[in-house]
Amino acid sequence: MTESLSGDSPISGGQPTVGLVVVSHSRTLARSAVALAAEMLHGRPLRIEVAAGLDETTFGTDAVAIMQAIEHADGPAGVVVLMDLGSAVLSTELALDLLQDPSIRDRVTLSPAPLIEGLIVAAVAAAGGASRAEVAAEARDALLGKSGHLSPPPGGTTTDASDVGTEEIVGVFSVENPHGLHARPASRLVSEVRALDASVQLRNLTTGGPAVPAGSLSRVATLAALQGHEVEVRAAGPQAQEAVEHLLTLAARRFDETVEGAVEPQASSGATSVSGPLPASPGIAIGPLRRLTAVPVDLDQQPVGEPAAEWRRIVESVAAVRRDIEHVRVVTAREVGAEQASIFDAHLSLLTDTEMLADVKTRTSTGIGAVSAWAGCLAEVEREWASLPDPYLRERAADVHAVGDQVLRALTGEPARRMTSEGVLVVGDLTPAETASLDLALVTGVVLAHGSPSSHAVILARARDIPVVVAAGAEVLSVPEGATILLDGSTGELHIDPSPELLQKYQKRAEDAAGQRARQLALSEQPAVSRDGTPVAVAANLGSVADARAALAAGADGAGLVRTEFLFLDRSAAPDVDEQQAEYGAIAAAMDGRPITLRTLDVGGDKPLAYLPMPQEANPFLGQRGIRLSLAHRDLLRDQMVAICHTARDHPISIMIPMVSTPGEMIEARQVLSEAAGPDGLPDGLRIGTMIEVPSAALKIEAFLPYVDFVSIGTNDLTQYALAAERGNGAVAALSDALDPGVLQLIDHVCRAAAGRIDVAVCGEAASDELAIPVLVGLGVRELSVSPPAVPRVKAAVRELNVERCAALARDALTLAGADEVRKHVLTMLSEAPR
C-alpha cells in the first residue's frame, strides 16, 4: 500500500522541495512517525509518501508499493527514502530497479538514518527548501543531539567515532532443535538478523565448514547444523553485541519452535470436510481417475530482452509471488493455525535472500534471460540443499524448488498444474484459474476432496457444464490413478470402482439426461411461463463475448449479470475507456438486442488487481471490495461508467453496483455516474440497480428503493454472510445453503418491500438450483440469471410450476428449521405436482 499522509503540495515558497518516502514494516508505525514529523512543519506543505506493511496489521514491505510511493513523491528536487530495518532496505533497492524512468532513479537518495529521528529532521529541512544532499545529511546526523546528551561526562572514557562498530563480537550456541537448523528455525534466525544493524557470520564448529552470512537463508541452510552441533556467531557493526546476545537467547529457546512443530507439518490443501460428498455441479461423469500434473517450463523457448528489462521482470515476479504467499500465510494462520502457517516463512525468506537475488541479477547483467537466470540460480541452491548430509535437511530442498517454480510460472504465465489425459479429475481443491483452464476435451467430471459448492472454482465449473462433487474427504486423494470413478453432481453420489450393474444403471441415467437436455434446448427460445400463466425471465451470467454467444444459443432472455472484472484481471494496467466500450458493445451485439446488465468492477482482496495496490486482508470477503474499492479509486470507476454510458446510447443496458452496504454508497455511485454521463445526461433507458449481498442491505431495503430501478440478489455472498460460513471453506460447506430459512427470510423481506415498485432478480447459484427455483418464484422473484448452459433447464423447470402453490410452499419454508427440511418439503411438492 502507498498513501500520502502529509499534505499534497510539493511546493514551498514557489520552489520545488524534496519529497520524502517512509518505508516501514509497520503501517501504524509509519503513520505515527509521519504525524509526528507533520507537527514540526507548522502547516508548511510537504509531500511525504508512505509504503508500509502488507496491510493494516501484517508486517512486511512491498517493492511495488515502494516504487509507486517514490513515483508519487518525485519532483525536480528529487526524493529521500527513509527505511526502518532489514528487508525494507532490500525491498527499496528492488523498487529502484522497478522504476521505468531512469531519471527518477537518479534523483533518489536512500538514507541510512534512523527512521523516526531521521524523518523529523528531514521533513523540517525539506520543507525549508534544503537540497536533496542537505536533507539526506540532516537525516544522517539526526542522532547527534541524542548522542551528545547521553555522552559520558568530561574526564570519562570516550570512544573514537572511527572505532564504533569495528570490534567483532563472538559467541557460540548449541543447536537444540530435534531436526537441526532446518527451514523454519533458520528462517526465524535470518529474519531476526535482518532486523539488526550488524554484519553477522555463522560457522558450524562441529563440521568445520566455512562461515556464511546469517542474513541469507540459502547460505544458512548449507551449514548443515544438526541437533547438538556447535555454531559460532561472529558480528560487527553498531548492534553487534545485541545481535550475538539475541541469537544465543533465541537458540536457547530452539528459535521458538514448539515440540509439536519440530516435525514439519505438510501444507494442507484445504480444510477437512465434515459432511461430504456434496453435490456441486449437475451431471453424471464416468471415467478413469486423473490428477493434475505440473508441466515443466520450457527454458529454451523464452525470449530475452535487455538486461535491465529482464531484471525488472524478475523483481516484479518475485514481488507478485511474495504477495501471494503472504496472502496464503494469513489465510492459513486464520483457518489452520499459526504453527502450520509458519511453513511459509522459509519461502518468504528465500524471496528476500540478498545473496541469491544478487546472483540472479549478475546473471541477467551478462545477457542471460530472466527465466534462465532465475532457474539456474535456484537450481544451484537446490543442489546445495539436496547434498546436505542429514536426510531431513535434504528434504527441505523442496522449499527451494517450490519457490523457484512459483516465480518461474509468474515469469512465463505457465499454469502450475494441468490435466494431461481424459477422465475424472480428482484433486484436493482447484483455483479459479485452474478451473478456467481445464480442457473440456479431457475432463469429464471433477471430484474435490475439500472445497464448497459455492466456491469461485465450482461456480466456474458449473458455468462450463462440468459435473462436480465436493467435500469428498481426504481419503479420495489416496485412490490410485486409473481407478474408475462414477459421480453424480446433482445428488453428490460418488462411487469408486463401481460394479458393472451400477455402471450400467448410471450410463442409462446419463443417456436419459442427454435426451432431456436436447428436448429442453429445442424449447429454449420460448419464454418461461408457469402453468398458471406467470412469466419468469431467465437470463444468463456472462464473463466474455464467448459467454454471450453461448447464452444467445441457449435461449437466454438477456444477460442478468455481466462480470466486467474479466477485462481488468491478469494484466499490468487497467483497460481504458475505448477498450471497455468496445468489449461491452461486443457483448451487447452478441446478445442481439436482448437487455444486458453490466456490473461495475467487483474485485478486492480475494480477487486482487496487480496494478491496484490492495491491502492483504485477514478476511477479504469482509474488507475493501466491490463498490467500497471502486469509490476509493474514483478515476477507475468513472472511466468504467463513461464506457457504460457510451454503450448504453446504442444498446439496452442496465448498470448494477456490487457489495453495497449503505444508501450513501449508492448515492455516491450515482453521482459518479452523473459525472460520467457528461452534459448529455444519462442515456435513455439506462436502468440503475444494486446487488443485495449484505444482510444489512436486505433488511433496510426500503432505504435503497428511492435510488434504484431494480435489485439483484447475489445468493452466494448473501448466504455466506448470513450464515457466517465462508463459501470456499469445505469444513462449513454443508452450512452454506441458500435454502436456509434465515437466508430465505432476507429474500422474502426484499421481495415484499419491492413488490409493485421495482423488479427483483436472483443472480446467485441458487437461481439454477431446481429445488430453490420454486421457493424463489414463490417469494416473488421474477428473474433468474444463471450460467448459459443452465438456461434451457431452468426455463423447463419454471414451465412445470404453479406460482400459487409455490407461494404457499415459500410461506411454509420460512417457518422450517433448516435447509435440509426446506429441500425435503420442495421434493414433496414436486412429486405431488400434476404432470
Description of the structure:
Residues 168-258 form the HPr domain. Its EC number is 2.7.1.121, 2.7.3.9. This is Phosphocarrier protein HPr. One of its GO terms (molecular function) is phosphoenolpyruvate-protein phosphotransferase activity. Its cofactor is Mg(2+). The structure is a single chain. 47% of the residues are buried. The chain has 5 domains: 2-144, Phosphotransferase system, mannose-type IIA component (Rossmann fold, 3-Layer(aba) Sandwich); 167-258, 2-Layer Sandwich (Histidine-containing Protein, Chain: A); 278-295 and 417-518, Phosphohistidine domain (Glucose Oxidase, domain 1, 3-Layer(bba) Sandwich); 304-412, PtsI, HPr-binding domain (Enzyme I, Chain A, domain 2), CATH 1.10.274; 523-832, Phosphoenolpyruvate-binding domains (TIM Barrel, Alpha-Beta Barrel), CATH 3.20.20.60. Helix content is 43%, strand content 15%. α11 packs antiparallel against α13, α13 (345-351) packs across α17 and α21 (545-553) runs parallel beside α22. It is globular. The chain contains 33 helices and 28 strands. It is an alpha/beta fold.
Task: Give the SSE layout.
Layout: E1 2-4, E2 11-12, E3 15-16, E4 19-24, H1 27-39, E5 48-52, H2 63-73, E6 79-83, H3 87-98, H4 102-106, E7 108-111, H5 115-127, H6 132-140, H7 144-149, E8 169-174, H8 183-194, E9 199-204, E10 212-213, H9 217-220, E11 230-236, H10 240-252, E12 278-281, E13 284-290, E14 292-293, H11 307-335, H12 338-341, H13 345-351, H14 354-365, H15 370-386, H16 391-395, H17 397-412, E15 418-419, E16 423-427, H18 432-436, E17 443-448, H19 456-463, E18 468-470, E19 484-488, E20 493-496, H20 500-522, E21 537-542, H21 545-553, E22 559-563, H22 577-590, E23 596-599, H23 627-632, H24 634-648, E24 653-657, H25 663-677, E25 687-692, H26 695-699, H27 701-704, E26 710-713, H28 715-723, H29 741-754, E27 759-762, H30 773-779, E28 783-786, H31 791-799, H32 803-813, H33 819-832
Parallel strand pairs: 4-5, 4-6, 6-7, 13-16, 16-17, 17-18, 21-22, 21-28, 22-23, 23-24, 24-25, 25-26, 26-27, 27-28
Antiparallel strand pairs: 1-5, 2-3, 8-11, 9-10, 9-11, 12-18, 13-19, 14-15, 19-20
